[in-house]
Amino acid sequence: MISLEEMNYINKYLLKSGERLDLPNNIISSNPIIEIKIIKQTERTYRVVGLLTLMANVVEESPFAEDLIDLGFTPKKKIQLNEHDSNTIKWFNLGFIMKEIRLKRDGKTVDTQHFRMGYRLYTYQQNRLRAQEEKLEQNFSSWKTKAKSFFPSTIIEMTNQRDRGVAACLSIINEIYDMDVDQLKECQAFPSGWSLSKRFKFLHFIAAFIQLGHQKYDFDWKEIGASYYQEIGGSKEFDRYKDDFINQLEEWAQCPVALLGLTSLGKITPLYFSGQITGRYSAYRYGPVHSLTDLSISEEKYKTDSTTLWLVENRAILTRIAAEKDFLEETNTLILCIDGHLRSSHKHCIKQLLTNGNILQVLLWSDYDPDGFHIAKEMYLTVKENHHGSIKWIQHSKQVLDTWQEYEVYMQDLLKDQRIEQEQVLGGVEDWRKWINH
């Protein structure tokens, strides 16, 4: 016989609005296969709209059909299977799937036929999800326990910049301490696209990094995992996400990892620009294209007297506009080249310029493709946090938009059938002036 729990499952996931099950009164206990009518009844009509065929009284000790997982069944999903196939028969007999037939308006003619997730498969998936959630809770608890060892008895003397970077990371970690797993899933301190398992892995990475940083002034990438896991293969534990984890660490620390003690990466991140910038140790005037580095940005406090900040995605745009004699100086414009996705040092420099300078407006210009759209959003979110003046976006038609909402709708429509690079709509001095003066 069919259980109350199975009935509730069918009512919730398989039936449409206004439908109900019509259980047969003469179910033969020796026959494990049950056929149930799906009916739709109103004050005037009583109509059979479908049939459900399922296996009842399944022995729960029978093994789970692992080969069923690849089909991707969900409670709402309908899947076409060959009902005479040996696997289909096996899955049906074990109660993992049920057959649903939908009838035409005459209540007799078959309209569609497909298989649905059975109650036994549903309960198996729910149990597995609960087990996974318990494992995640244990993982999170384990990380919290390990994180308490951030402060060993012997702590080496650190530079001011290193202290600030570590303190910034610990500030975020302290907020995460009080979260549960569900809150961690939505935590804004991580990129939105990161899975929960990747977030957990990064938490272990940051614990390992800070722990090792307290023990040694300089250390290599491989030492981070090796010292943390203390087992064969530990040095490779974080290799899969190396670039992502380094970028995220720099985002949290607001400085390059080289200043936090990580050596031998051999990488310096440049920020190309043209215009007027001054710092404590350097000064740049209008003229050629210059570059700052992630190391100099972390040590400097840059500012500008320019009133327009222009962020572009591609170097070719930067070099073309910078080559136009006196244009940037006459329009009092500083132009920065993001050169791909924003790095933490880029964000830090933009924040410095917006906070310390006299920027009245910011122009954002990126490619008209999915990556360019994503970069435009990264630029906008960085600028928005530190700027209360005008923000503008350049359309491929050489028109200007004044709000992110307008630009978002424009790009979503454009990307349905077009991909355009900045260089294709570069324009000339008159266009650039029009955009600045818009």
The main sheet orders its strands as: 9-6-11-10-12-13-14
* Overall tally of structural domains: 3
Low-confidence segments, given as residue ranges, are none
Overall pLDDT confidence: 87
Helix/strand structural class: alpha+beta
Shape: flat
> Helix share of residues?
40-55%
Give structural notes.
It is built from 15 helices and 14 strands. By secondary structure, it is an alpha+beta fold. It has 3 domains: 4-124, no CATH class; 151-260, no CATH class; 270-437, Dna Topoisomerase Vi A Subunit, Chain: A, domain 2 (3-Layer(aba) Sandwich), CATH 3.40.1360. The strands form 3 sheets. The protein has a 7-stranded mixed β-sheet with strand order 9-6-11-10-12-13-14, sandwiched between helices. A 5-stranded antiparallel β-sheet has the order 1-2-3-4-5.
Key terms:
438 residues, 17% strand, five-stranded antiparallel β-sheet, 14 strands, flat, alpha+beta, 3 domains, Dna Topoisomerase Vi A Subunit, Chain: A, domain 2
Question: TL;DR?
Answer:
The chain has 438 residues and is an alpha+beta fold.
Summarize the SSE layout with pairings.
Layout lengths: L3 H10 L5 E4 L10 E9 L4 E10 L30 H8 L3 E7 L6 E8 L1 H29 L12 H18 L3 H6 L9 H20 L5 H9 L12 H12 L16 E5 L2 E2 L4 E2 L5 E4 H6 L8 E5 L2 H9 L3 H4 L2 E5 L6 H13 L4 E5 L4 H17 L3 E5 L5 E2 L2 H11 L14 H9 L1
Parallel strand pairs: 10-11, 10-12, 12-13
Antiparallel strand pairs: 1-2, 2-3, 3-4, 4-5, 6-9, 6-11, 7-8, 13-14
Helix pairs in contact: 3-6, 4-8, 6-7, 12-13
